[in-house]
Specification:
With 174 residues, the chain is mainly α. It is 71% helix and 0% strand. Helix 2 crosses helix 5 and helix 7 crosses helix 8.
Length: 174
């Protein structure tokens, strides 16, 4: 006889939002910077380019600002933020007994379809973060709390895109 599945217990979204606000506030107070992840990923990729073609890094303004000359792209606070997010996420999954390899997908989407949509979504989000000069946490949260007009425009665009794509993605998922 099969055991009934227990529904996972998640944090209260209101308390999680308050917690995120406190973390964002402390980030500004303690470091002088808001939150953000895309800059850290850009620095990691810049390091790979610097290993393969250091002369290219020195010629390109985008790369040179992160790793040109004697600059170390890993010598930046945002990488510590990424490490903390990864370790915190793993700790949370471990505590809630959800730390295991798995692919979340709808009943009619196979593993390959799910992985392809995840990779394509990641590429689009990464490209969008480059265009917007920040990801949803850096541009959206950190910019919005300091009332940056561009960040509010970004947030409205993110929500509009979410609403427009929710139905077709849900059809693909189910």
């Amino acid at each position: 006889m099969e055991q009934p599945r227990k529904e996972p217990v998640y944090a209260n979204p209101y308390l999680a939002g308050i917690g995120l606000g406190i973390v964002l506030f402390l980030s500004f107070v303690l470091t002088g910077h808001g939150l953000g992840a895309s800059g850290g990923l850009a620095r990691i990729m810049t390091k790979f380019v610097d290993i393969i073609a250091p002369e290219h890094v020195d010629r390109m303004v985008y790369f040179a600002s992160k790793a040109g000359g004697t600059r170390n792209p890993f010598g930046h606070w945002i990488l510590l933020l990424l490490i903390g997010v990864a370790l915190g996420g793993m700790a949370s999954a471990f505590i809630s007994k959800r730390l295991r390899p798995q692919i979340h997908k709808g009943p009619h989407a196979g593993n390959v379809v799910r992985l392809i949509t995840a990779v394509l979504g990641g590429i689009l989000v990464g490209y969008g973060a480059g265009l917007a000069r920040g990801c949803t946490s850096g541009q959206g949260l950190s910019g919005a709390v300091v009332l940056a007009v561009g960040s509010w425009a970004f947030l409205f665009a993110v929500f509009a895109g979410g609403f427009l794509l929710a139905y077709p993605i849900r059809k693909l998922w189910n």
